[in-house]
């Protein structure tokens, strides 16, 4: 038997496994997604089941919170009023305190005659900026961060079929066509090289910082 992993290692494995199951269920037709709310419903259900299966102590329990409120220390391109909600927050706790936690943001990019491709891509980067701010605002540098993107529009896919890197103090100037405004998005952390997982009409992306 392999050694019992730390709660943070378990959270990372649970999220990776949940992502794989989620993608396969969507592509296979076991579940249907039409927006971020349906993504949140199905992915959180998978995470809850996997999380509870990975509790190894009677003093430990797995918890999941949807739309968790966080007061940000700094303004971001997405949260200009410093108020934010995490799409999915998962954590291992014991009776006294938090052991380990992860913040997950979701993005669904769908086909639409009015969809601005640049706006969709930049909305993903804005979520990453918020994720990094969550770790600062909750004073938890070990907070595991992850963004999961699902798309039914191939126009959103950059670097098709290839791995690419983001982050490392990158500043992206974002122009939002909807309200004709500019803002700078700063992504400070270095992220693992990423690649779109493409299955027929669906494409998926999982983004997380390097450990």
Percent of residues in beta strands? 25-35%
| Major sheet strand order | 1-2-3-4-8-7
Number of helices: 3
Stretches with pLDDT under 50, minimum 5 residues:
none
Shape summary: globular
Instruction: Find the structural class using helix and strand composition.
Output: alpha+beta
Write down the Rg: 17 Å
How helical, in percent, are the residues? 25-40%
Strand count, sense and barrel status of the largest sheet are: 6 strands, mixed
- Topology pattern, helix = H, strand = E: HHEEEHEEEEE
Mean pLDDT: 82
Please report the distance between the alpha carbons of the first and last residues. 25 Å
Counted beta strands: 8
Properties at a glance:
211 residues; alpha+beta; 6-stranded mixed sheet; two-stranded antiparallel ribbon
Brief synopsis:
This protein is an alpha+beta fold and 211 residues long.
Structure description:
The structure is a single chain. By secondary structure, this protein is of the alpha+beta class. It is built from 3 helices and 8 strands, in the order ααβββαβββββ. Helix 1 (7-28) crosses helix 2 (36-53). The radius of gyration is 17 Å and the shape is globular.
List the helices and strands and how they pair.
Layout lengths: L6 H22 L7 H18 L6 E12 L11 E12 L3 E12 L7 H21 L6 E8 L18 E7 L4 E7 L9 E3 L2 E6 L4
Parallel strand pairs: 3-4
Antiparallel strand pairs: 1-2, 2-3, 4-8, 5-6, 7-8
Helix pairs in contact: 1-2
């Amino acid at each position: 038997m392999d050694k019992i992993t730390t709660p943070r290692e378990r959270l990372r494995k649970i999220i990776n496994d949940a992502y794989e199951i989620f993608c396969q269920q969507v592509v296979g037709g076991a579940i249907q997604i039409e927006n971020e709310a349906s993504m949140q419903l199905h992915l959180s259900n998978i995470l809850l089941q996997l999380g509870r299966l990975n509790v190894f102590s009677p003093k430990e329990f797995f918890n999941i919170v949807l739309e968790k409120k966080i007061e940000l220390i700094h303004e971001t391109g997405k949260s200009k009023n410093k108020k934010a909600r995490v799409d999915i927050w998962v954590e291992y706790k014991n009776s006294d305190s938090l052991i380990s936690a992860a913040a997950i943001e979701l993005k669904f990019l769908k086909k639409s005659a009015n969809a601005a491709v640049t706006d969709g891509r930049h909305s993903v980067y804005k979520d990453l900026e918020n994720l990094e701010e969550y770790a600062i605002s909750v004073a938890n540098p070990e907070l595991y961060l992850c963004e999961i993107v699902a798309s039914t529009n191939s126009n959103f896919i950059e670097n098709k079929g290839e791995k690419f890197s983001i982050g490392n103090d990158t500043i992206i100037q974002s122009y939002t066509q909807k309200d004709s405004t500019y803002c700078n998005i700063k992504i400070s952390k270095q992220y693992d090289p990423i690649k779109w997982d493409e299955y027929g009409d669906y494409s998926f992306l999982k983004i997380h910082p390097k450990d």
